[in-house]
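Please, structure for the following, as tokens.
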Amino acid sequence: MALRSVVARAASTVSSASLPATADIVIVGGGIIGSSLAYFLSKRKSGKSVVVIERDPNYTKAATTLSAASIRNQFGTALNVAIARFASDFIRNIKRELAVETDDDGPELNFMERGYLFLGTAGSDAAMRELHELQLGAGAENVLLTPDELRARFPFMNVDDLTLASFGTRGEGWIDPYAYLQGFKRKARSLGVQYVTAEAAGLDMAGDRVTALRTTTGARISPGVVVNAAGGDAFKVALWTGLDVPIRPRKRCVFVFQCNAEAPAASPMVIDSSGVYYRPAGKGHYIAGVSPPKSEDPVAEGPDAFTVDHAIFDERVWPALAHRVPAFEAIKVTNAWAGHYNINAFDNNAVLGWHPSLKNFCFATGFAGHGLIRAAAAGRGVSEL
């Protein structure tokens, strides 16, 4: 996948459909979650009309297209492992699932099934072994590696301070996120879903129901059901109903760097014990980043919401990279961008399901950087509510 290819390909995706007066289901947000839901709803062939409202049809600021584009099965609960396994199976069969015509090959995701490698230092062994047993019990395929085994498999890596690692052997790696999103969208549209380029501005309500959704142009649509899949703005949409969900966007910077050494190109997605991650991203190139501590993770808003903080690379990312992979002492940053994690401060999990007091308002949001992994399961699950 070419780095940041989303910008080059975006021009062909703009929808010019006008807003209809009514629809059985109105989805606010046409990103990976909204488009997955639109696909699964239309696949059910219930005869219900589905309208997706998306203000940014080029997806220039979508969490999915600005992500590290990686998927994994190694999670801390059996449910999240099952959700991730559903996604990896769906992606493996993507051409059959999302082909539009009988002679269509479906989207090409370029799934690089290279695995995730979580590295642990002293004091983390017991927790890693416990997680390993949970993940195996939930059907994940991963192995624990000792320092000697790590050294044999990844000789370019410094393992002197490591005590244990967990390596996913199947269903983990990285994909083309833009192709995945567009695959859902294209298939949904072929099944009758209408995408409208517009920005939602408010809701009209009567009793326990939403009676209309308004856009910034003054247009209105009367919905049977409204689904809030608005990503980083989902909390704003929820506020229109009087409910303040604890989901806010948090900025995450992704750095692209070049390294002339060949050995690290064999890397999986590596999650270092420091929290820094890196993975290959084309010949001689890699991406890397890190999540900040909560005390340094404000809500992403205002003019700097998508501004890259280059100090993160200099102060946190590069030192960790150079320590773990000595070849990374000599690297050059060639690109960087900032995207958002839409984080649920309550428990870091998604909010899915019905509004507590509105009978026709549903949530599908708050995926905390895992929307790419959970889109397929979330779309299917919400479509069955």
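The longest helix spans residues 78-92. The first strand starts at residue 22 and ends at 28.
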